[in-house]
Inverse folding.
């Protein structure tokens, strides 16, 4: 069916509202069958050719409709048109799920040979961080398939080490993972979601234009996949992992494949199979488990030091960890100083990590720029050499709101090898200095500076089964 261009011209000018509260919100339309959204890394060249052809057809034949998609995301995600930015709200995951769902339906019905059987691939950057082949360069047609930006594998990998993905997935409650209210987005927009946007850049690196890049939809399909995976691993563990009260009653509006504005509640977007799709399991990450939490103070000199209860437990764990690590990472003469006994299951212990989350006070950071956070020994200079600092996460402003007032939410983590280096190479055991550095266009971190200023606190999470 050909949809009149006048219809979409009006929709593009108005940009369908994301925050309306319509009286009637029927469930989204069902599809005939549940089909897999495949991992991008598993697609054959013929599959990519079909996806490329569908997007080129869309951009060539109905650029007004394509622009409408970008404007819809702009208005919902930059706080324009009196909307709350969904990146700052518990709407983040649900709104983007609805947006991707209807984008997929439009692409399938109007531009893909597969019709309504079409499913977007998920760019599985947690194990395949290279930008998928058809999106690695600018393609000239009526309008570019991609805008300019960074497409180097090493750039994307900096923010996508499995530890950084796990720092988000180890969110200990739904309030942390989803957000706890209209002005709290939880951990979802942080970590891998934001790192990918900021490191690739181009239109993709700005909330106002990100949906102008087709890679946006594959990226958010994988963010959605992480949500799917988190729910299947966590929600069976207790009520604290169910959506927060009131979350399911949020109402959104989208544009469907027939050019109509449809109203959907978040609760109707919760079950992927009811929307006609599912995902491949997430591989190569640690097993999700309930976490124990500890508060950690960071001094005005940027020194992070564990509380004694956690120090005692980590002392026990180190004997198990060190046997699975290269000797070059360790200061072996100091091992006998560590208290505790060897932990059973050395291999399993070596496949664990420790995550940190909180708000880091930093001023003068540039919007739309990715800054890595790193750790080093406490006696490391204020401006160290690049190889003296180990990246443990990152921060950045994807929306350009400049509303952080110098305080930046962050998800950080230590993998076992970094954890041992952190614990054993400082003059003060179980302490480390924190640093930050902007990432350049080649993915290099060469301007590390010590985080100094007011004291602040981070929350450390470790698996509960680490505790006696």
């Amino acid at each position: 069916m050909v949809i009149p261009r006048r219809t979409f011209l009006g929709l593009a000018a108005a940009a369908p509202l994301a925050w309306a509260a319509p009286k009637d919100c029927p469930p989204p339309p069902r599809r005939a069958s549940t089909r897999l959204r495949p991992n991008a890394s598993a697609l054959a060249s013929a599959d990519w050719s079909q996806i490329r052809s569908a997007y080129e057809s869309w951009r060539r034949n109905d650029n007004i409709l394509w622009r409408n998609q970008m404007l819809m995301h702009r208005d919902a995600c930059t706080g324009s048109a009196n909307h709350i930015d969904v990146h700052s709200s518990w709407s983040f995951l649900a709104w983007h799920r609805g947006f991707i769902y209807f984008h997929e339906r439009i692409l399938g019905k109007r531009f893909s040979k597969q019709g309504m059987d079409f499913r977007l691939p998920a760019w599985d950057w947690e194990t395949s961080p290279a930008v998928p082949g058809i999106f690695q360069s600018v393609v000239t047609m009526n309008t570019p398939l991609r805008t300019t930006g960074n497409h180097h594998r090493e750039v994307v990998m900096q923010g996508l080490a499995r530890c950084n993905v796990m720092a988000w997935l180890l969110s200990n409650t739904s309030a942390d993972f989803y957000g706890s209210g209209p002005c709290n987005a939880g951990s979802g927009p942080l970590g891998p979601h934001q790192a990918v946007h900021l490191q690739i850049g181009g239109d993709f690196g700005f909330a106002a234009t990100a949906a102008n890049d087709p890679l946006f939809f594959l990226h958010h399909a994988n963010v959605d996949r992480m949500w799917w995976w988190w729910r299947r691993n966590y929600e069976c563990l207790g009520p604290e992992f169910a959506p927060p009260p009131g979350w399911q009653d949020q109402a959104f509006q989208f544009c469907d494949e027939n050019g109509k504005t449809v109203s959907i509640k978040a609760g109707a977007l919760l079950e992927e199979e009811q929307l006609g799709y599912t995902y491949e399991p997430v591989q190569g990450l640690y097993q999700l488990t309930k976490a124990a939490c500890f508060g950690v103070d960071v001094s005005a000199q940027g020194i992070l030091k564990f509380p004694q209860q956690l120090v005692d437990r980590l002392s026990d764990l180190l004997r198990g960890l060190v046997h699975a690590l290269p000797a070059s990472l360790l200061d072996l003469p100091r091992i006998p100083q560590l208290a505790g006994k060897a932990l059973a299951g050395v291999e399993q212990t070596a496949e664990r990590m420790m995550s940190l989350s909180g708000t880091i006070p930093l001023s003068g950071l540039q919007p739309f720029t990715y800054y890595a956070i790193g750790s080093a020994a406490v006696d490391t200079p204020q401006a160290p050499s690049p190889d003296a600092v180990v990246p443990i996460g990152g921060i950045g402003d994807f929306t350009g709101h400049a509303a952080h007032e110098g305080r930046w939410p962050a998800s950080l983590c230590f993998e076992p090898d970094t954890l041992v280096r952190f614990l054993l190479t400082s003059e003060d055991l179980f302490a480390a200095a924190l640093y930050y550095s902007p990432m350049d266009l080649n993915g290099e971190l060469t301007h590390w500076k010590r985080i100094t200023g007011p004291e602040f606190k981070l929350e450390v999470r470790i698996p509960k089964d680490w505790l006696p």
User: Anything to note?
Assistant: The radius of gyration is 23 Å. Residues 92-111 form the longest helix (20 residues). The chain is about 30% helix and 15% strand.
